[in-house]
Design a protein that fits this description.
Largest sheet: 7 strands, mixed
Order of helices and strands: EHHHEEHEEEHEHEE
Number of helices: 6
Helix content: 25-40%
Strand content: 25-35%
Structural class: alpha+beta
CATH class: Alpha Beta
Distance between the termini: 31 Å
Number of strands: 9
Strand order of the largest sheet: 1-2-3-6-7-9-8
CATH superfamily: Gcn5-related N-acetyltransferase (GNAT)
CATH architecture: 3-Layer(aba) Sandwich
CATH topology: Aminopeptidase
Number of domains: 1
């Protein structure tokens, strides 16, 4: 498969992200699908995605030659935290952590707001390509890319480890157990 990796331009692309997110949300997949194929947990609105996009566009992967949205990797700057209130506890936790002896809050990082690959395109290297796109577009501006992953999402955990993310912290909240990971670009 040939991927075209680019920054989101807004408009209908953001609506396509929301549709792919809806199709792969934990509440829409069976437990078997979640275990084998992964899932997403957060839900965004068009308003929140538009605000995130205005601060820093997300990275999209398009299949070629048909031009279908094959996957996305949402860019979420710390300045976007108010746009998705359910993620506020995550941002607060990030501010209390350290990375290799330095306070995470003092480092230049942003958050992988969510990554998702459409079912027909899984297992074909798109996750790696989306993350290469992030590094290409944002490594000059940031030192780290940070995210959290449900420990139940084994497919996502393996993909992040393969790309180069390393564990920072593990915790449990009322909904799940989470692993915070970082990809150091320094």
């Amino acid at each position: 498969m040939t991927w075209q990796i680019e920054l989101a331009r807004g408009g209908s692309e953001l609506e396509q992200i929301l549709e792919l997110q809806r199709q792969n949300h934990l509440t829409r997949v069976t437990p078997e699908q979640a275990r084998a194929q992964g899932f997403v947990t957060a839900r965004h609105s068009l308003e929140s995605l538009t605000g995130m996009h205005a601060l820093a566009p997300s990275v999209l992967g398009w299949s070629r030659p048909n031009g279908q949205l094959a996957g996305y990797a949402l860019t979420m700057l710390r300045e976007a935290r108010a746009l998705v209130p359910i993620l506020e506890p995550m941002f607060e936790l990030f501010e209390s952590l350290s990375w290799r002896g330095a306070a995470l809050a003092g480092l230049e990082y942003y958050v992988m707001g969510q990554i998702c690959v459409a079912e027909p395109f899984r297992g074909q290297g798109l996750v790696d390509a989306l993350y290469r796109g992030h590094r290409l577009h944002y490594a000059q501006r940031f030192e780290l890319l940070v995210t959290e992953i449900s420990t139940r999402n084994e497919r996502s955990l393996r993909a992040h480890q393969r790309v180069g993310f390393e564990a920072v912290h593990r915790y449990r909240d009322s909904a799940d157990e989470w692993l915070i990971v970082a990809w150091d670009w320094r």
